Amino acid sequence: MSVPASSAAPTSASSRRNLLRASGLAGLVVAGSAVATGPAQAAPDRTGNVLRLDTVTALRALNTKPLTDGTQVIVAGYRTPGDGGTMALHWDKKSTAPHNGGTVIAPATTTKPGRWHQLHTGTLDFRTFGHFDAGTPADNALDAMVNDPAVHRIEAHTDLLFTERHLFDRSNIELDFGGHHIRTENIEKNTHDNPFGAVLSFRGTVTDTTVRHPLSGKVIELTDNFPVPDAKAFAVGQWWAVQVDPVAGGGGDERELQKLVEITEIIDAGHIRIGYLNGWELAEGRTLTWTRVEPVRNTHIRNMLFEGAGPDEYTGSHPVSFEYAVGCDVSGIHATGTFWPVVMRRWCTRFRTEDCSLKNPPTVEYGGAGYLTQQIYCLYGRVADCTTSNVRHLNDLTASAYCTVVNCHGDGDDAGGNPFTTHGQYEHDLLFDGNSGLMDIANSGSQWGISAKRITVRRHVCSWFTANTKITDLTLEDITVIARPTFDQAGTLTVNADGAQVRGCTAKTFAVAQRSARSGRPTTISDCTFEPPAGAVLVQTPVTAPVHFVRCTFKGIDGAVLRGAGPVHFTDCTLTGAENAAPLSVGSADLRIDGGTYDNTGIELSGVRDQRITVTGGARFTGSNKAEALLGRAAGPGGTTWDITGLSSRATGAGTAHIRIADGTNHYAATGSRFTGGTLHLAPDALASVLHTACVEDGTRHSAMPPAGDTVRTDGNLVL
Model-level pTM greater than 0.85? Predict the structure, then answer.
């Protein structure tokens, strides 16, 4: 905005009001005062008037000797009238504040007291410090504005250059860069392994007040009531960083509790309530350390295009970090080439990171580098509407809880950078909804515990998804894993059999692993479709927990393996074999088949242990397979019990056996079943007992059958 030049001051109240209205600064000057101008160094018409000048250069050249304290001036622009640097200032004749070119302006040729102080409503603009492009560093202007407690909002209306890494402890301020380009060429060097050396780093104050004590009793899961030695050390509304000592015998950073929490109630002399339902039980005797913190609060950073500077941890740059912060949000940051995470958080509670992106960081191999956002020891966060290309991680939640990741999408992840991950440092109660990109949960190594609990992922699309560490009560809904030849041609989805619930998912290769047994709920896979490659291990060796497949479809299977000893239950599933496919090899101690269709596939018990197989509910077996036996067993040392009721089996080819038992020690019972074509092969030497009755045999040949006796009964069948 430009204020017209005039050599004579207005003399009427009307003209003065018009001038102030035109300037947009009427509320910042004293109403009714006169405006005067004059050549550089000329005295104003009379002291106490509102002056008008074209530029800051003219202001600094003004003769201030005749001015009374509090004299006000309107500057029409910083370098030229109307250039966006318009501001109102007042004269403080006793001020010795350092000149910063914006909020404090000193006369050009004096060292005496007396400064011009900018009048503002709490919103400041880099243009009032003379920054109109990225030609010169704006670091001093940034420091001056952020460190001014009267400022609550900072705006940028042009590109800017920063060459310093700034650390603030400022609360209740918003920095809005207006979508402009932020450059960082030749930025000062960072220190080693320091993702908090951002251009804009905000850190709360950690006090020297600590309380350290062993727990006097067990702290149950999902309680906010904590025992303390003396509740008088705490006060409602205070914030404390609390952590438990490392797990005995575990990794060096393996802790179930590390959070920034608010004291919400003093319950009694020995108990306090905090604003967090803890996610893990803590045993009596474990040591808690409480450290009081004055967090940064309600500081928000928004809207910039950020270009990273260098290729390594020292020269690289990134825009934002928060540590010990409450209610601090980030939005609209779109970065290219940043080394450390674009938005780095640790010890943060209640925050949003929205509408941010990262493309092409210098590395996806260096640990901790190349992220869009990482959260460590964080609570109640939301990451939404973010995207990445060719990065290590879009989002990492480490030792964090009650956070949500929504509508975020990562591409260019062929190098193995998983857009979605957690470290496995006892994360709990996280929700991922409507995202796309590789996902890897709780898999950063034993140093952190490889543990997580109550993680829910919905409507996710990727080419690889692994959650096979100590993940308890995992819930997957509508996950689509599509094999991609440039990364994982197997299209793998893997889960931990510790309360996993997998519903409505699609993958090529599916596997159940087991690393923990903490859950009280069953592991159930329902309404899913898989197409495993030949020989795929569907249930891995360590699995001892029951695994239940419900209404699942397996296409083109060939020699799939259920290797674990735990019970496996198929209910109303459809299994279709590839051409000349090998049957499923089952090592489960207890296999139950309840209904469903099994075409050109079949079951072969491995015999590696004592096993029981139950077939019921109208299960239908059809066709043939490479072993030419729809139900059979291998020559293992284990004994097998066969309970078959209501089976409908139709064999293709005269040589295909509906049931072949030729090895080991077996107890066999089949009732109410229908066999069409093919053979029944029950080798006498392999049968300790046989009950084969009330069945229908339609064109079925007995290639082996024990004679009737005290432990064998084979009469009462309908033979067609």
Answer: yes
